[in-house]
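To close the section, here is one more complete example, presented without commentary so you can practise reading it yourself. The ligand is magnesium ion.
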Amino acid sequence: MTAAPAGKRPATLTRDLRDIAATNELGAAVARQLGAGDIVALYGELGAGKTTLARALIAELGYAGEVPSPTFTLVQYYDLSPVAVWHIDLYRIDDPNEIIELGFEETLAEAISLIEWPERMGSLLPANRLDIVLSYAGADDSRRAELTGHGSWRDRLAEAGDGF
Ligand SMILES: Nc1ncnc2c1ncn2[C@@H]1O[C@H](COP(=O)(O)OP(=O)(O)OP(=O)(O)O)[C@@H](O)[C@H]1O
Ligand SMILES: [Mg+2]
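Output:
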């Protein structure tokens, strides 16, 4: 059997996150790969660790302050250098059309977007993105992360993967 062409390599990676420190490390490693226009979709049930991972990403991207969960504000904007960050939580969105009113869509290309409950976006969810699915993995502080690259992220994940 010949090797699959680069663009068709399986682009899913699994990481065991045995404690919050491991989650923070993953967040920092992923953050170092991010630039303007990147979208990270954070999936997982309540308490799976999406916000915890987002906090680690935002810290590595240059924000030293406290990062509130956007569960109630829906969006938080971090005006960071060189690239700003949108932290979005769509849990309370019932209809994808409500997302248009949030007004972050038009600046997606200029910022990094971290989106909790991305499934709420339906077909508005951009196709070019890194998915991270978090799940409970037994012990209280243990989680599992499954990373899947879509679009250009297929190759980017395969290249960056060892560092994650
Ligand atoms: N390995 C771990 N990684 C991430 N969080 C962990 C881990 N172990 C324990 N936790 C705890 O699990 C909780 C995760 O909460 P968090 O708010 O990050 O979840 P969430 O997925 O954003 O939930 P929600 O859907 O309500 O927004 C926190 O209290 C955190 O301290
Ligand atoms: Mg959350």
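Once you have examined the tokens, check your reading against these statements. The mean pLDDT is 91. The CA atoms of residues 4 and 96 lie 36 Å apart.
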